[in-house]
């Protein structure tokens, strides 16, 4: 509908906005569970005397669901500030690896761009974006769109729970506690690169299970499993690592 | 230190720690070589992290958790639809608790 400007003959332009929209849409399914759990979180926060302003501040600055749950659980005056910060650090150690795994996606972007988009990387949009990237070209705006989708769902859900009450009385009765595991399990299917993944994946699963048993109640098992599995892949002989994965 | 100051401090420290991990991981990875073992390490990371999130969560739910996970994978392979796959797992867990 724009006869004045002829379509650019060069190959597909970056089109950040379209990537943003696609990323937003791709995260809607998981965002529904994020909102439901957000409402539970908001209610718990209300019971600890955390108002909507503090809650919103927490959501926007920390933006990490499981860590915020633990934080609010420890929210007992006098506030154990150092213990809370340490617990959050431990739970979120996995983000060190998650950030590392995004090197290729962010290749060629500026430091400012990295600094802005990384704040909105959560387990959910990270997994959705990398799963999408295994099928079609995807850039950091896709990740950003997903982050905005998750952020909106988390804020809307938690503010609702904080002011009105939980959306669903007991999410566990409805199996919703399994929703995140189910989404991640489904996405895992597109992360499988063939036989060369077998040994690293077995290592990751075994180490994660052992660490989870050894250090119950913490989230050390995620970085421990992820790290050991990837180390296993690195130590395997190059020829066993199979064909080049540069192009698909 | 008043309760309000303590609350603010707790949130700011938690936020700083989380952000440092997010950005730090990406920037540190940029220092690694893009070939050989380091490359294989990086390429394997997404799968092994996701697996480490999923396996203990599923195992902790017992046989029903295993069954729900298996159905989720089967549904994903059949339909290629994340929503359908998620719903199959969630419905199975809900049923197991209603029984």
From TrEMBL, chain B:
Alphabetized UniProt keyword annotations: Membrane, Transmembrane, Transmembrane helix
Alphabetical list of InterPro entries matching this protein: Brnchd-chn_aa_trnsp_AzlD
Top-level lineage group: Bacteria
Record Pfam families: AzlD
Transmembrane domains' residue ranges: 6-29, 41-61, 67-95
Protein name in the entry: Branched-chain amino acid transport
Lineage: Bacteria, Pseudomonadati, Thermodesulfobacteriota, Desulfovibrionia, Desulfovibrionales
